[in-house]
Amino acid sequence: MTTKWFGAPVQRVEDDRLLRGHGRFTDDIGEGAAECCFVRSPHAHARITSIDVSAAREMPGVLVVYTAADLPFGAVDLPLLIPHPNLTHGRTQRCLASEVVRYAGEAVAFVVAENRYLAEDAAELVQVEYEPLPVVITPEVAAAAEHLVHEDVPGNVAAEMVQETGDVMAALARAPRRKKLRFRYERGASCPMEARAVWARWSAEERKLTVFDSTQSPTSIRGGLAVLFGLPESHVEVIAPDVGGGFGPKIMLFYPDELLVPYAAMQLGRPVKWTEDRQEHFTAVNQERAQVHEVEVGFDAEGNVLALNDDFIHDGGAYTPYGLILPIITAAQIPGPYRIPNYRVRFRDMYTNATPTSPYRGAGRPHACFVMERTLDAIASELELDRVEVRRRNLIQPDAFPYNLGVAWQDGNTVVYDSGDYPELLDRAVKMLGPRPEGDHVGMGIAVYVEGTGVGPYEGAHVQVLVSGKVMAATGIPSQGQAHATVWAQIVADELGVDVADVEISSGDTRRFPWGVGTFASRGAVTAGNAMHIAAGMVADKARRIAADHLEVDPADLELVDGRVRVKGSPDRGMPLGAVAVLSNPVRYAFGGGTEAATQFASRPRPGPRLHDGEQPGLEATGYYSPPGSTWASGCHAAFVRVDPQTFRLEILKYVVVHDCGRVINPLVLQGQIEGGVAQGIGGAFYERLAYDADGQLRNASFMEFLIPYATEIPPIEIDHIETPSPLNPLGVKGAGEAGVIPVGAVLGSAIAEALGVPITEMPLSPLKLFELSRQA
Amino acid sequence: MKVNGAEHPAPADPRRLLSDHLRHDLGLTGTHVGCEHGVCGCCTVLLDGAPIRSCLMLAVQAEGHEVTTVEGLARDDEALHPVQQAFHECHALQCGFCTPGFVMSVVGLLAQHSKPSAQEIDEGIAGNLCRCTGYASIRRAVDRAVELSKS
């Protein structure tokens, strides 16, 4: 393959229509759709004693009002997406609650009306009576188990899992020094700028359901709807059109609306649309991050970690639709880039009366990184060693790969790091960070991390050269802003020797590519990217076979350059790719587009079938890539901060990132991923804390009080890259989507601790929290 | 009211938000709605040339005023407006949902300050939230838009 496009700073091909206001987000689709509004529980835990929808049903403009009793699937638990043997007490909610509500915001009734304004009016007429039950909020309260979230789940424990490598108790007993530490992370929210939306249309004539959904996994939605409604999958089309950011929670399925909107469209025989408002997004959409870690670490006088024992509880929320993935990732990622010869981790996944949890950009890793890095800081502090030096002494060395961590990974295998150079990351970051700025209340923070990316099971791609010479390529996974249409085009263009502008990408549309898994876990470039590479390579091979037959040369002597298949060394001998596409489909009738070249009398007579054995018509191919294991990206972030000792305002003086995601497809896209990730990490570390009260009410469910950083809060980020290609996939790439977020809490926590001389053991922080810590100190 | 240069009658429903009216009555879906409480800035349009939140205004309040949405900056057969072009060149958008609001804010900013300082840029875009870019590329785009506007 040539690499004309791969690695180049190609400008995005998706920008023009988005900049002109011609993007197509789900709520942009109208077509006379009826509109909807949920009635949601105001209580975090209550028994429903009655639901009266009669007044709402009678309101002019209301088309239908659903409660659980009105639905054929009203008594069915929603799917438990990822079962696990340790998930002994998995529970999922129903589409609409009818007996017990277990978090404020849980859906109870669904109103469909002529428009959104009327639907909201009617929702206010729905009378639901509740008998409040004791509320379990925070994982600590859940672990105390004075009250239960689910009557039949003892101790509020959904799952427990223990893993150990080496002999931790013996190693701790032998260790010259030991330290016990406690760390806490609170809930945050990903807050994509587009909240969720679903639009559906049912064609009774064709028995075809078409759904537009702001989901990260249209293929899974399609599969689920086909099962639910008893339709063949070919009669269900699910499209994730332009999606305004995802960051994890849009991979969750099924949110109740994803069943109710298609169902209503089928019942009413007209399109139906539901668009979430921001306030309901705060409680109806999955959250993440709350964990409490109890750590014991054993180390020697040089700061070498000898043993680490972490016992943590994870706040799963009211239900566990996403299984154990989050605590499994945390457990796997605590050791990070460090050699921990004896490691034991136990976690318990706790039910609480809060919105369920599932991955949010970082997905279990920011907490893991915070625990490990703050532990190393504590060792450095106790031994009065330099923090950088303690890290350097514990890093896994570049000759140690593949490095088997021996703990479970989210793909069902164990964690095996494929490649990396962690000391180089650390050295470069220290050098980039430079000298300490002058002044008081300045602190330095640094963190090294790894990130398991590119998780399976697989993705696929279909690539076709049209008779015009243009290339169409499609994959099942959707984009939420990651520039898939640009980077896939780069990969395909290199294989086919065409211009990026001649490659049109479709992503996340089951009509174009029906198979696949989804966009999550920094996996797109690895899975769909390699599938594109494989499919385009198959097309290139086919083009060489067909052109070789026509030109009467050996396929091995042909190359694909500048939109032509030509003989190496004789660039004038060849034919355009579009002409090869014509020849790939032997026709009887010339229907234009140069197809006369593929009719029966157009070429010399030849024996045998016109379509050679084993060949299929069309210059197209479908390829799949299924990774043998995750690719492990890595990086080091470092920062200088200043904290005002009076107002506790945080000023980030310098922030540097050295990042390794293997071979870089597009440095502009990668820079955007890192810069955006760090900004989200800064928000999550210092501004964005979901504030639940003891009654389970989210007290800051608006952008007025849940403070996402504006430009004024985000400093310039300096970025450098190293490339240790992944040996696991043909392109040598690793994922990069979450790298910006993961270590920010650890970096800022460390820096603020030094700046103020206060212990930082929890996230997120805030000026108020720092004020309290300073008063205690 | 005048929208992108064309006269339109007021909506029949007096409680219709300007944002909903633009999007769902006039089909100008480039104006996005991200929070409906005036914080995120996705719904920013120009009212008589100045950026406003179209989710905090009733459509009937725009009677007698001139509204410009992102669709009004450059016709489909025209080159991108310098601010749009700068956003493209500087990779200042990812998902594109907040983008029309940012573009309109920057158009408003540059109408007031033809060459804004770094601080004026930060303040000029500090009424808009972006969850994808981390703002660095948007700052670069404002600088680039200044250059493109001169030429």
Please outline the helices and strands.
The complex is a heterodimer of chains A (777) and B (151).
Chain A: H1 15-19, E1 34-40, E2 46-52, H2 54-58, E3 62-66, E4 100-101, E5 107-113, H3 116-125, E6 127-132, H4 139-144, E7 157-165, H5 168-174, E8 177-185, E9 197-203, E10 208-213, H6 218-229, E11 236-239, H7 256-268, E12 272-275, H8 278-284, E13 291-299, E14 305-317, H9 325-333, E15 343-351, H10 365-383, H11 387-394, E16 403-408, E17 414-417, H12 422-433, E18 442-453, E19 459-465, E20 471-475, H13 484-496, E21 503-507, H14 524-551, E22 558-561, E23 564-567, E24 570-576, H15 577-583, E25 620-625, E26 631-643, E27 650-660, H16 667-686, E28 718-721, H17 744-756, E29 762-763, H18 767-776
Parallel strand pairs in A: 1-12, 8-29, 10-11, 14-15, 20-21, 27-28
Antiparallel strand pairs in A: 1-5, 2-4, 2-6, 3-5, 7-15, 8-13, 9-10, 9-12, 13-14, 16-17, 18-26, 19-20, 19-25, 22-23, 23-24, 26-27
Chain B: E1 2-3, E2 6-7, H1 18-25, E3 44-47, E4 50-53, E5 66-68, H2 82-89, H3 99-112, H4 118-125, H5 136-150
Parallel strand pairs in B: 1-5
Antiparallel strand pairs in B: 1-2, 3-4, 3-5
Structure notes:
The complex is a heterodimer of chains A (777) and B (151). By secondary structure, chain A is an alpha+beta fold. Chain A has 3 domains: 31-133 and 190-284, Aldehyde Oxidoreductase, domain 3 (Alpha-Beta Complex); 373-455 and 629-776, 2-Layer Sandwich (Aldehyde Oxidoreductase, domain 4), CATH 3.30.365; 457-625, Aldehyde oxidase/xanthine dehydrogenase, molybdopterin binding domain (Aldehyde Oxidoreductase, domain 4). Chain A is 26% helix and 25% strand. Chain A has 18 helices and 29 strands. In chain A, the strands form 7 sheets. In chain A, strands 3-5-1-12-9-10-11 form a 7-stranded mixed β-sheet. The longest helix of chain A has 28 residues, at 524-551. Chain A is globular and about 90 Å long. The model of chain A has no long low-confidence stretch (mean pLDDT 97). Chain B has 151 residues and is α+β, with helices and mostly antiparallel strands. Chain B has 2 domains: 2-72, Ubiquitin-like (UB roll) (Roll), CATH 3.10.20; 82-150, DNA polymerase, domain 1. Chain B is built from 5 helices and 5 strands. In chain B, helix 2 packs across helix 5. The longest helix of chain B is centred in the last third of the chain and has 15 residues, at 136-150. In chain B, 63% of the residues are buried. The interface between A and B is large, with 57 and 59 residues.
